[in-house]
Every structure is written in structure tokens, then in C-alpha cells.
Design brief:
The structure holds two protein chains of two kinds. By secondary structure, chain A is an alpha+beta fold. Chain A is built from four helices and four strands; from the N terminus they run αααββαββ. Chain A has two domains: about 40 residues; about 120 residues, no CATH class. In chain A, helix 1 packs antiparallel against helix 2. The chains are: A alpha+beta, B mainly alpha.
Chain lengths: ~170, ~270
């Protein structure tokens, strides 16, 4: 997940720089629009299936656009208390740095999840890496969670706020 | 009428307001920025975060790199979809360009989406120091930014400071109660064990919003701690009744501070014979 947005930002900043150097604004805009058409997904945050990363058994129920969790109303949100009960007992090494570990994924109409993509950042919102075993532990725990709302495919993300050697919050 | 009011208050989070649209006529003497403004209007005709919308915001930024509105709006879908690194980079640009306009929003988002309590406090206090007018409200209309600041102090575990900020705000001459202010105040007193003040605030909350399950949960807690089990039972039953009608604290994006889950309600119910 993190590679793609960086690319978009890079394009944006580069174009801004070009136009401020006195290039013909309209021409530059047209050029950028064409390249952006190729680079942007249909919607920010879309996750294309990747056979090298994804479980081949995971299928969405519908073929059309997958909505974001928040577009489906509050009933499609899992309460933080439920998430904290599930993830709060994850044991992390004492020296785990502070930061946020986010996993974005698709929940299908049967309440199963797939297409997991991740992003890690420190408390200054800069990219960082947590230990692989830590991330694997959280991902395994996520795959075992079985209380997702059913009935629709939708995009969801979970952000784990990590501080003091533990998961202190599960967001959103 | 009260039912309608409650319904409105509970649905408030569904009506997130976008930042005010700029008046393009203000840029009439600056053609690139005028065109950028027009591009941003084209952008918001498409679904937020869609390719076409993002491309029009890119065009706006190309034409007028100082156009804060485009940076802000381009950032929003990244926030809502969990790409906080990209959101922050874009939003920071908007804040640099228009700090008085954007700091409060960024601070609120840091609180709401990331529970970045210190970051939220820093942004809100920076805004307070910068302007001599009311700093305004949270993006979703839930509370004043001063209340958000108090809740952020609470999140940091600085309960005395949190209460000091909230008490001063509520006692202020310009205070106007929003749907959850007295709920938050009551819970702060409850956490400190000041049951009489907690009771007073939670009763005040009923005057503002009489159909909020969460409030009755905390009232039941207070009465249970005071040993008034009959009262506690009445309140937890009312809480369950309202919860079953969907009249509880909810938000489509995040779980709000002091919201209670059905699991917590059931657990308390079991403890009240």
C-alpha cells in the first residue's frame, strides 16, 4: 500500500515544481493528467488482487466497485472494545518502537478477509519498519478475527497504535 | 420533538462537512489561481478519492501551488482510507499555506483517526496562540476544539489537566452545550471518583440529549458505586432499551471517546442484580 501513494505524491510534487519553473501551465497540466490517468487507481486505496501476495481462495462476492467501510454506515463498524479484546493481548517485545502499523484489506460478504496491504509509520508520520515477527503476529491474529459484518464486500483498515511495548489502541 | 432532536444528534456524524468551498472570484486578479479554483470545483463533482477528482486537484495544484484548499481536499481520502503518511504530507502543505484555517482541522483528525493526542494538543494550542477569535469546532460537529483538547489530555492520562480545560470551557461565558459535552465531563468526574459531580453532569446531559444510551450506562455506573442499586437498575435498563433502538453514540469513521459497546453494557448489567 505504501509504494503507490508515494508515487502519486512524487508525481504531484514534480509537476508542481515543473509548472513553477515557468512551463506552459495548460500543457503541463494535460501531460500530467495523462500520466495520472495511468497511475491513479479508480479510487484512492483500491487494492488490486496480486497472485504473488494474496490467498487464491479469497473471493469477493460482487464484481463491481467495493465501497469503503464508512460508506455503509455505523453498523458496518466493529466496536473498538471488541477489537481491543481480540488484539490487546498480543505480546510485543519490550523494545518495540512507538508507531502505527496499518493493514488495509477487503472484507467479503461472508465476513472473510483478503488482499492485505500494510503501512508502518513512526509517531512523526514517517515510514518505518516494525520487526517482521511482530507484524506476522498481528496479521495472524487479524486473520483469526471472525466478527466482521456480513452481507457486503467492503474495504476496511485497522491501525494498531503501538507504544510502551503493547498495542494501546486499535483504530479506526 | 425530542425524538427528532436525538435522531439528528445521533446522525450528526453522517453529515461531515467539507471545508468551505473557496470563492473563486477572490482570485480574479490572479489568473492561474482563479483557474485552480475552477479546477477544484470540477474535482468535487466527482466522488471523493476517485481518479477524476484527484486529477482535477492535481491540476489545481499545478496551476497554483499555494492553493491550500486543493492540498487539503486531495489529502482527505488518504486519511479516511488509512494511508496516513500520504495524508500528512499533503495536509502539512495545506497547514503551511493557511495555518489559521487548517490547524484546527489537522489537530482534530490527529485526535479522531490516530489518537495522536499530543499532536492534536500541539495543533490546537498553536491555533489558540495564533488567533484572537473562537477557534471553532471539530470537523464532524461533535464538539468544540477546546473539548477535543481536553479529551486529548485525558487520552494522555493527564486527567487533572483534562478536567481543568473542560471545566473552564463549560464555565465560560460563551459556552453552548453540544450533544456530548456533559457526557464527557461526567465521565471525567466518574474516573476521579467524584460521584456527586458526575451525577450532576450526567443529569445535565439528559437535558441536552435525553435519548443517549451511553449516558444511562454511566449513570448506572455512578449509582452502582454509590450503592443505589435500584437507581442503577433503572438506568441500565433504559440504556439497553435505547441501545436496542440504535440510540447510542456512533460514528461512521471511528469509535468516539466515551462511547460504550454492547459488550460493556451487558457486563455492567450482569453486575447489577
Amino acid at each position: 500500500m505504501s509504494r503507490f501513494p508515494r508515487l502519486i505524491l512524487c508525481i504531484t510534487l514534480t509537476v508542481g515544481l515543473l509548472s513553477s519553473c515557468g512551463k506552459d501551465g495548460k500543457e503541463a497540466a494535460h501531460k500530467t493528467a495523462k500520466s495520472a490517468m495511468a497511475e491513479y487507481p479508480d479510487h484512492v486505496g483500491d487494492i488490486a488482487p496480486d497472485p504473488e501476495l494474496d490467498n487464491p481462495d479469497f473471493k469477493t462476492c460482487s464484481k463491481g466497485k467495493i465501497p469503503q467501510y464508512y460508506a455503509l454506515g455505523a453498523d458496518y463498524r466493529v466496536a473498538n472494545k471488541v477489537l481491543m479484546d481480540h488484539f490487546g493481548t498480543v505480546t510485543l517485545p519490550d523494545n518495540t518502537p512507538k508507531g502505527y502499523y496499518t493493514i488495509r484489506f477487503v472484507v467479503n460478504c461472508e465476513g472473510r478477509i483478503g488482499r492485505l496491504r500494510e503501512q508502518s509509520m513512526n509517531t512523526d508520520y514517517q515510514e518505518m519498519e516494525f520487526r517482521k515477527d511482530l507484524k506476522a503476529t498481528i496479521r495472524t491474529r487479524l486473520l483469526a478475527f471472525d466478527q466482521w459484518p456480513q452481507g457486503r464486500d467492503f474495504y476496511q483498515y485497522l491501525t494498531f497504535k503501538i507504544e510502551g511495548g503493547k498495542i494501546s489502541e486499535v483504530l479506526p | 420533538m425530542k425524538k427528532l432532536l436525538s435522531l439528528f444528534l445521533l446522525l450528526t456524524p453522517l453529515f461531515y462537512k467539507a471545508p468551505p468551498r473557496p470563492n473563486c472570484e477572490m482570485f480574479r486578479d490572479n489568473e492561474p489561481c482563479y483557474q485552480a479554483c475552477q479546477q477544484s470545483y470540477k474535482a468535487i463533482q466527482y466522488p471523493q478519492g476517485s481518479r477524476n477528482s484527484q486529477i482535477h486537484f492535481d491540476r489545481a495544484i499545478e496551476l497554483c501551488e499555494d492553493f491550500a484548499y486543493a492540498w487539503h481536499e486531495k489529502a482527505v481520502p488518504y486519511l479516511k482510507r488509512g494511508d496516513f503518511i500520504t495524508w500528512r504530507k499533503l495536509m502539512d502543505k495545506a497547514v503551511i499555506l493557511a495555518p489559521e484555517e487548517k490547524l484546527g482541522y489537522r489537530g482534530w483528525c490527529r485526535y479522531q483517526f490516530l489518537r495522536d493526542y499530543q499532536g492534536a494538543i500541539d495543533d490546537i494550542e498553536r491555533l489558540e496562540a495564533m488567533v484572537n477569535y473562537d477557534i471553532g469546532y471539530a470537523q464532524n460537529g461533535d464538539c468544540h476544539l477546546i473539548v477535543a483538547k481536553a479529551l486529548a489530555y485525558k487520552g494522555l492520562g493527564q486527567h487533572d489537566k483534562a478536567l481543568e480545560v473542560l471545566e473552564a470551557f463549560v464555565a465560560g461565558p460563551d459556552f453552548y452545550a453540544l450533544p456530548y459535552d456533559f457526557l464527557h465531563l461526567g465521565v471525567m468526574y466518574l474516573v476521579r471518583g467524584d460521584l456527586e459531580k458526575a451525577l450532576k453532569s450526567l443529569k445535565e446531559q439528559i437535558n441536552v440529549n435525553p435519548q443517549l444510551a451511553d449516558n444511562y450506562y454511566y449513570l448506572a455506573q455512578v449509582h452502582k458505586q454509590k450503592g443505589n442499586l435500584t437507581e442503577a437498575r433503572v438506568h441500565i435498563r433504559r440504556c439497553i432499551e435505547l441501545y436496542d433502538q440504535g440510540l447510542y453514540r456512533k460514528d461512521v469513521y471511528t469509535t468516539p471517546m466515551d462511547a460504550v459497546s454492547r459488550a460493556e453494557i451487558d457486563a455492567l448489567n450482569r453486575l447489577i442484580p
